[in-house]
From TrEMBL:
Residues 10-316 form the Enoyl reductase (ER) domain. It comes from the Bacteria. One of its GO terms (molecular function) is zinc ion binding. This is Zinc-binding dehydrogenase. Keywords: Metal-binding, Oxidoreductase, Zinc. Belongs to the zinc-containing alcohol dehydrogenase family. InterPro entries: ADH-like_C, ADH-like_N, ADH_Zn_CS, ER, GroES-like_sf, NAD(P)-bd_dom_sf, Zn_alcohol_dh. PROSITE patterns: ADH_ZINC. Coiled coil: none annotated. Its cofactor is Zn(2+).
Length: 318
């Protein structure tokens, strides 16, 4: 099979490698595609802790496809089942996963790409946020995750205020149901606008979905007293500072919405399957860029640089 191998910072090659065999309790998935995650960007940039070359297919963890081989002891799954897989070497044509780490996709989703991990992540964040009808919710950062959360919160009856730096992202937020949009340019102007939109009390709940210092600072500033601040951004490029005086004074509930338990990841993916199949979530317009495996480097660079019209890249195999 063909698989991507990172050979150094910003460099990769596609190599022919042996197709993996599923072990006991595992299935092999002939992949249709794999989403490109922003968490790949730090390894792609080459931090000190990275070592090269990587294992074939490494970093790809948003795969979906068709089961084509089943290991011993697997029950309830069979060859031909289309699944979303929670596996970790999916920048390749095949990957293996534990049978308990795949979710079968219904026939109604047969023609739809389904990067299960990020969709499941959005569902888990939404559950942790505990959004209620009538609340005012600000979402800072309208990428793939922020857009899905905008739709989920709107459908829950919340009034969503979307904040993002790109006009294209704000357009997406409006199509997903945002009641108000604000360009993320000037810190004080954003605060003033939120104060105006909320009658001076700010937001019941704020979701920070960027993963940078400034959006984290802004998130606390626009959360009301006894409001809830949800950290959904992936903060992986160094320590952060917080204004504990403000957090204390306002009595904020702060929730780190990242999960590490694979069972909860799978719960989120199952909820995402139900949400997409029922029409509560429609991610189709969010898949904006498609690349063959040979252009994974372009997919990673687009995810980093976010050209006009970009929201989510998928590597597709067939």
């Amino acid at each position: 099979m063909r698989a991507a191998v990172l050979t150094g910072p910003g460099r990769l090659k596609i190599e022919p490698v042996r197709i993996p065999k599923p072990g006991t309790g595992q299935v092999r998935v002939r992949l249709e595609g794999c989403g490109v995650c922003a968490s790949n960007l730090t390894p792609w940039a080459g931090p000190d802790w990275m070592s090269y070359p990587t294992e074939a297919g490494s970093l790809g963890h948003e795969g979906w496809g068709i089961i084509d081989a089943v290991g011993e002891g697997v029950e309830g799954l069979g060859i031909g089942d289309r699944v979303a897989a929670l596996s970790y070497k999916s920048y390749a044509e095949y990957d293996v996963a534990e049978a308990g780490s795949v979710v079968r996709l219904p026939a109604s989703l047969a023609s739809l790409p389904f990067p299960g991990e990020p969709l499941g992540c959005a569902m888990n964040i939404f559950r942790r946020s505990n959004i209620k009808a009538g609340q005012t919710v600000a979402i800072i950062g309208i990428g793939f995750l922020g857009a899905i959360l905008t739709q989920l919160a709107t459908n829950a009856g919340a009034r969503v205020i979307a904040i993002s730096r790109r006009s294209f992202s704000l357009d997406i937020a409006r199509t997903m149901g945002a009641a108000e949009t604000i360009r993320m340019e000037d810190h004080n102007d954003i605060i003033a606008r939120l104060k105006e939109l909320t009658g001076g009390v700010f937001c019941d709940l704020v979701i920070e979905a960027v993963g940078k210092q400034w959006p984290l600072d802004l998130a606390a500033e626009i959360t009301r007293e006894r409001g809830r601040l949800i950290i959904a951004g992936y903060h992986q490029d160094g320590p952060r500072q917080i204004n504990m005086w403000l957090w204390n004074w306002r009595g904020l509930d702060v929730i780190n919405a990242h999960e590490r338990d694979p069972k909860i990841y799978l719960q989120g993916i199952r909820e995402a399957v139900d949400a997409v199949a029922s029409g509560r979530v429609d991610p189709r317009s969010l898949y904006t860029h498609f690349f063959p495996l040979e252009r994974l480097d372009d997919a990673l660079n687009a995810t980093r640089d976010r050209p006009e019209g970009f929201l989510k890249a998928l590597v597709v195999f067939r």
